[in-house]
Amino acid sequence: MKRTVWLVVIALVAVAFGAVVYGMALRGYYRAVAPPPGIGIQELSGQVGLVRIREAEREGSVFYLAEGKLPPGYVLASGPPVYVFDSSGRLVEWIEDSGDQPGRMRPWEALPSRGVSLEHVLRQVERQRGR
Q1: Which of 8, 50, 81, 111 has the fewest beta carbons closer than 10 A?
Q2: What is the pTM of this model?
Q3: DSSP secondary structure string, 44-101?
Q4: Which strand (E) or helix (H) includes residue 115?
Q5: Three-state DSSP class for 113?
Q6: Residue 114: in which H helix or E strand, if any?
Q7: Phi and psi of 5, rounded to 5°?
Q8: Gap between the Cα atoms of 120 and 55, Å rounded
Q9: Quick one: CA dihedral 89, 95, 98, 102, positive or negative?
Q10: What is the C-alpha separation between 65 and 7, in angstroms, rounded?
Q11: Under a CB-based contact definition with an 8 Å cutoff, are residues 55 and 5 in contact?
């Protein structure tokens, strides 16, 4: 009986320790992909690597939805981070895990959009700034 109790205690301690380590790893990952305030799309692309970019229009304004790389397996994210930029290339929203935050993703996903390259976005941003 005593042995069973000790095994249960050891198992619970191991699970708690694992949860703490996982939480620290998760926090470290999200800190690494968190965009600094005011960052532009070109700078962010160099830091986190953008996988896919979509151009969408909402109420006459153009936005760029850029997906980051999927996190490493230990993070267990249900979707990639999504960075939303306005037509001037300025970050307006960051969605840490697009799969876990459907309420924040749904308005962006509902917009008609098309896939574009980073080069296209940078040309458009430059034109916008030159106005």
Answers
A1: 8
A2: 0.76
A3: HHHHH-EEEEEEEEETTEEEEEEEEPPPPGGG--SS--EEEEETTSBEEEEES-TTT-
A4: strand 113-116
A5: strand
A6: strand 113-116
A7: -60, -45
A8: 10
A9: negative
A10: 50
A11: no
And the tokens for 37? Answer: 């305030």
CA–CA–CA angle 36, 45, 50 (5° rounding) = 115
Note the pLDDT of residue 84.
94
Length of the chain: 131
Number of helices (H), then strands (E), in the chain: 4, 5
Residuewise pLDDT in 10s, the chain (131 residues): 677 877 777 777 777 776 666 666 667 777 776 788 778 888 888 877 888 999 999 999 999 999 988 777 666 777 888 999 999 999 999 998 888 888 999 999 999 999 999 999 999 988 887 76
CA dist 99 and 80 (Å) reads 7
Show me where the domains of the chain are located.
1-33, 35-130
| Bridge partners of residue 36, in order along the sequence | none
Tokens (6 digits) for 86: 């306005």
